[in-house]
Amino acid sequence: MSSAEEAYERMTAAGFSSRYRLSGAAVPVPLGDVATRILEPARDRALVLATAAGDRAACEELVEAFLPAIAGVARRYRTVFGVQRSELLQEGVVGLLRAVRRFDPALETPFWPYASWWVRQAMQDLVSEMARPIVLSDRAHRALARVRESRRAYIQEHGREPSIAELADASELGREQVESILAAEHPPRMLGEPIEVDDWTAGTLEEQIADPVSEDDYERVLARLATEQVDALTDALDDRERSILYEHYGVGGSPQTLREIGGRLGLSAERVRQIEEQALDKLRVAASSSPPPRDVPLDRSTVRPSAGTDVSSRLAERHAS
Amino acid sequence: MPPDADGLRHEALVYDSDEQLVERVAPFLREGLEEGPTIAVLTRRHWSLLREALGGDADGVAFTDCADFYIRPVDAVAAYDATMKDLLASGATSTRVTGEIPLQPAYEAWSEWISYEAILNRALADRPAHVLCVYGTENVSDDVIDAVWQTHPHVEASSAGSHPDYRDPRDVVASQAGKPASTLDLRTLAPTDDPLEFRELLAAELTAARAPRAKVMDMLVAASEVFENARLHGGGASRVRAGLVDGWFVCEIEDRGPGLDDPLAGYLPPRSEPPRGEGLWVARRAVRRLELFDKAPGLLARLWL
Hints:
- The complex is a heterodimer of chains A (321) and B (305).
- Chain A is mostly helical and 321 residues long.
- Chain A has three domains: 3-131 and 213-223, no CATH class; 138-187; 233-317, Orthogonal Bundle (Arc Repressor Mutant, subunit A).
- Chain A is 55% helix and 4% strand.
- Chain A is built from 13 helices and four strands.
- In chain A, helix 10 crosses helix 12 and helix 11 (258-265) crosses helix 12.
- With 305 residues, chain B is of the alpha/beta class.
- Chain B folds into two domains: 8-175, P-loop containing nucleotide triphosphate hydrolases (Rossmann fold, 3-Layer(aba) Sandwich), CATH 3.40.50.300; 187-304, Histidine kinase-like ATPase, C-terminal domain (Heat Shock Protein 90, 2-Layer Sandwich).
- Chain B is built from ten helices and eleven strands.
- Chain B has helices at 18-35, 44-54, 66-69, 73-89, 107-123, 142-151, 169-175, 195-208, 213-233, 279-286; strands at 8-15, 38-42, 62-65, 95-99, 129-136, 154-157, 187-188, 237-245, 248-255, 289-294, 299-304.
- A six-stranded parallel sheet of chain B has the order 3-2-4-5-1-6, with helices on both faces.
- The mean pLDDT of chain B is 90.
């Protein structure tokens, strides 16, 4: 068994999609409705690495290459009411980029089978959050909690369900408000549910919903990719320190000796060496104590806003995001 | 249960249903709000359920999506440590956190999060914080659930059952260590004891491999720390190899020392200011992955960019 076959077996055993099958190729190849464009594994990894390094063009290429596959995953949620296809695609892209940040080269797993798990997770999370009958405002959430608490207390005290009027009284809310809040808790209608008009079936609910699928979805998702620049460790350095390190180690050009750099800057080779040591110290401190580099240009607007105080932003700032 | 005034209280809730989760976590967060900063790092679905239960109190809880937070264990440790340090400095006397590791695609992926839970006991030992980790039996395998008992000094479970005892974090991390080092096809660099020359040699390999510019210094910093560690504790680097493996840049540094004597090496955030002598922590933070293998004799450090 080849290493690719072993990897495939491990992934299948671990619950990866059974839609991946070996087809004589050296790596698992997605078939059917999943992907129309498959990258070579080496190209995958080059794009993943470049994306992780903050290369926006690579990030866009990666997303573009995997959008058909992401759309394939999204298709399984097409019957979920309350979630738009474009939202699913956005979440799928978020999942893909989460996979980029997590992808562990030591696992020897092809990228897409690994990433598809995170894509699916991201979509499921969205669906379970959004496929509620109605999205409640913060105020309504508070009122709902109050109604529930009142109901629990009433049942404890009286041993029976309260009426709407009793619930309104106990929760000190208006009767209409209680009715609206309780209505919001009703289960959603199934898409396959028949719609009946005067004892005549006029089709299903699903058939009444306009198909939101369009090529524009892809464009919208791509357009929402971040424009943020990557915060590299070297942001901790001043221009001279950065230029000395880059020139000495040939980052973006040919490497130069300390003497050559010193000649250009009017410094001795020893002084250049000292500046380099100071710069490396700064990088050590930056790597040790700062948040890790913002290594994937993930657009925060694709992640749903959350409640919280400035603690959450501090936590987020302390972390890759 | 109040947090230990002097340090970390790390406990876990093993629940069977959403109702049980909400029933336990909502009061935990409410109590936290009375004490100080309160943080929830959960799935959005669970936060949605808790928001309903908490009502207006939810506004006081700092929520972060766990899928965006728990990316790499070392970064999660660093984020919690730095945040708690900041909060203490700004006057908080304790911090309360409920955390949920996102579901992982395979046990190999869970393994490092099991280690993370063990490491947290040591890494945040001196931070006055009450951390409640939640695990659902519906979605997580028995092996992972058993590890909850091994990594949390206090566990509350919805269902009774027989579970292993709490273990020393070093033992847990050692037991989760990966497979022995495989042999990678890498190029051997010219031997040297000079850190500057070592960096020049490695930089040439990085350039030849067309490593992304933004990442070159990350590898140079991380590898320099490991190289220095070998000089100080391992009798010097006996062999350095580097190159591309399936598109990933890898650097291996072998030394002549006694091998890995502490499984927690490089996992604990430094406490000195500025950080000193914490080379492996710096290396772990700077590169995608740092693996350490005992070579009998010696230590093999493998860095993945």
